[in-house]
Amino acid sequence: MLLIGRHVSGFENLKHRAGLIVLLLAIPTFGSITGETLSLQAISNFAALQRPGVLPLDFGCAQASYRALAPNACTHFENLITLRDVSVLCGFFLIGLVAAIALAARYVRGRRDRLISIFGPGARGLIALLPVITLICGAIAVYSLFELRSTVLGGIAFDLSISFGVVSATNAIALAVIALIVLRIPVLHVESVEFGRTDQPALWEVVTRLASRLGATPPDHIIAGLDYAFFVVASPLKLFKDGGALNGEILYLSLPLLRVLTQSQLEAIIAHELFHFKGGDARWAIRFAPIYARAMMIHGSPGSPPSSRIARTMLPALVLFSFFVDLFTRSAHEMSRARELQADEAGAELVGATAIGGALTKLTALRPIWSDMRNAFANRKIDGANLSALFAHNVKRNLENEVWRRNIVSWAASKRMAHPVDTHPTLRERVAALGLNVEDLEGFLSMPEQPSIELIQNAKVIEMPLSDKEKTILRHVASIPLRSRDKVDSELRHGF
Length: 496
What we know:
Blueprint: H1 10-48, H2 57-60, H3 64-69, H4 71-108, H5 112-153, H6 159-183, E1 188-190, E2 192-194, H7 201-214, E3 221-225, E4 231-233, E5 237-239, E6 245-246, E7 250-254, H8 255-258, H9 263-278, H10 281-295, H11 309-312, H12 315-351, H13 353-365, H14 367-378, H15 387-399, H16 402-412, H17 427-433, H18 441-444, H19 459-478, H20 485-494
Parallel strand pairs: 1-5, 3-7
Antiparallel strand pairs: 2-3, 4-7, 5-6
């Protein structure tokens, strides 16, 4: 999924990178300083107890006869040297990974094929390394704390070091489990119905005609549901209704939106989506999106520091992964934005700029009505058999209010359209690229005399069971504590 990475530039970028290095090298630096300082102290302490002329520890321990005379002192000294050397090597390894990530991100910039080939294997490899990095850094921290506590207290102190060791080991195991989950590509589930060629000939005629004009191949499947979006995917997809799996290129249509779009506006949207098929965007997105989405299970958002207490004990691993995702997401965002504008242009060439501009305006501006209606259903404040029809009724009522239309256009101009597998520019940027003015947007907000839903045979019969399922999901989600609602809603609706 091409999500929007946090943009960092100028002085903020410098501070971000400096902070990353500090966090990344905190434990290796702590270990190397501890090992070096205590090894020098061990040499000094041992020399003070010996007669003049005896070799110091750092030279004498290499000789078997010397080790036989001071086995404990040599073993302790060598352990401290090992701590220092392992910490230094760990630090250089982490810096090397940062350099490799930065070079890879520069290599893929502006090249979608390179981004696909590098991001997937890179993410998998780095995710597999996270438990190892956590375990090594944990071991460095544990032994450093153990030696410091023993030196300061004059004896052996296990309490803090053992506690830290248990936490580090637990985190390493947790990251290993998460890595297994992340590396497993999820199967997409969408509550929807399939529109066969014989079931919906009018719709398929429109799609096939637009594909021919665009020089694209028609999708293998067309499905429709109540999600507030149009999108294309090119991965295995299961329909909740009968559990059947679809393969190939799939076009998803939103039934509620079909009730408020004119047929020319729908054609512009379909042309936009078919452009993504033609350019391979659907296959690119599905290869990028699952790994990215699952990777976010490890780190909530690119560029953000770990926030929980458990996460702080995994700082080197998580900071490194955050850096990787942040850089690659910026490249993905830049390419995604350009492709969206090109897809808009394709829709404008086939159907007209006003058609695609009007569709984009409605999709962005009318979303609050859909969200408010879903919330009202979830809280049992309203009832109704057909959510699509109720949505169209609410849209019509709101569009009759001139003040509401003016305010919603002002709000929508700076918004980005939500989408399952892509990143979009703002509405203002998109209409400007089409040669339209923001001032023209209010004129697009009107109910169509012949809505696109008329292309669908037996639309109400199709919408009813989907509406019943949607209401069941909404009311189940409403009974769950607020912090868990989004996650459960996604699981019920999409299966992950």
